[in-house]
Amino acid sequence: MKFSCYKSDLTEALQFVIRAVAVKPMTPILAGIYLKAEGSMLEVQSNNFSTGIITRIPVNTEVAGETVVSGKRFQDFVKNMPDDTITFSDEDRSNLLTIESGGAAVELLTMTASDFPKVKTPETDKSFKIRTTALRDLIRKTAFAAAKDNDRPIFTGGSFEIKGDKITLVATNTHRLALASEQLSESYPDSSFVVPADSLRGLMLRIDPKDIDNYVTINYSTRYLTFSFDNVFMTARLIEGQFPPYDRVIPSSSTTHVKVDAVEFKNAVEFVGLMSKETQYNTVKFSLGNGGIEISSTSPEVGGAVKNVEADIDGEDLDISFNADYIIDVLKVINSKQINIALNDKYSPAAFTEPDNDNYIYVATPVRA
Predict the structure, then answer these.
(1) How far apart are CA 208 and CA 214, in angstroms?
(2) Are residues 72 and 35 in the same domain?
(3) Could you give the C-alpha distances from 231 to 33, 120, 206, in angstroms and in order?
């Protein structure tokens, strides 16, 4: 096998497929990445049996072939190659892949390609299509709210709900919740399923935010789901279990309404958040009143930080505390110049929304400080 390709193309592909490389593999082959060069395309695969990924990039193939290399090491060396073009060859020795670029060279041990569990298309009985950019926006605005590690796996996923021509994605770690909806181009039978949030975050990396005319085809059954578009194919095992009735968490009314500049608010929370890292629960305090929000955090061991931002406040003055990261995370995905915050008291969840957008809501539970 011998081929060459652009470093940027392969780096982007590896950033995607590395997410399905097994971290604690039952067998060494599952820690590998499968490469198959043929004609003008390189097929790259990874498979940990929960998630399987296939992506393809353009290459110049001199000798067709296939091999498997250690995923993490391969990614690291490709990323650090000095030139824009990289050449790969395993012609000199059968169990080594030589990687050359700009005067640098490395040899990596390979594994037998026939031993690699190729990604297969699972049997599915339902499907729908959604614009790639719409799916990307759904994931970007919600997946961050899922639990990273939880005794209840259901909270590590994003729950999709389809009702007619509307699709909703919800994620929660029980302390915060993000919900986003999009319109589909046609109506589909009502259904719901939960996809691992890590698979969704990986998929988002491969979607070009400028590719507004492309569609993703999603096929699914009771156990598996596949995404396919362009040169990308991804399978994911669905998370079993019943997603909680999230609508009960969303406040139905509020006594205090706040409108604040999203950028100024984000900058202020990030600034004070530096001090909050010294507190037990990463706590920042919001004091609402006198035409603004005073954001503060105090650490007995380090000191204190405070920042004021102007805001339109309608309702009662209020002091309420949050985990700083929970607020910063949502401010990173807000598209609008302003953000609305609806509150009741210092013990009740607060709802964050965008003006003129009824398809997104973020709910954060306060810290009892």
Answers:
(1) 10
(2) yes
(3) 17, 15, 10
Is the same domain home to 94 and 11?
Answer: yes
Give the number of residues written for the chain. 369
201 domain residue, yes or no: yes
In-domain check, residue 271: yes
For residues 237 and 341, state if they share a domain: no
User: Which of 182, 202, 190, 161 has the alpha carbon at shortest distance from 46?
Assistant: 202
pLDDT in tens, 127-154: 999 999 999 999 999 999 999 987 789 9
Domain that holds residue 285: 256-364
Determine contact, residues 323/283, Cβ cutoff 8 Å: yes
How many separate domains does the chain show? 3
CB-neighbour burial class of residue 130 (10 A; exposed 0-12, middle 13-18, buried 19+): buried
Q: What are the angstrom distances between the C-alpha of 91 and each of 1, 3, 94, 205, 231? A: 6, 11, 7, 33, 27
Tell whether 237 and 293 lie within a shared domain: no
Q: Is residue 369 one of the residues assigned to a domain?
A: no
Reported as a single tens digit per residue, the pLDDT across 50-82 is 999 999 999 999 999 999 999 999 999 999 999
Pairing of strands 215-220, 283-289: unpaired
Contact 235, 52 (CB under 8 A): yes
CATH number where 23 lies: 3.10.150.10
Report H helices in the chain: 7-17, 71-79, 132-142, 197-205, 262-276, 324-333
Distance CA 321, CA 347 (A): 9
- Quote the CA–CA distance of 34 and 21 in Å, as a whole number: 10
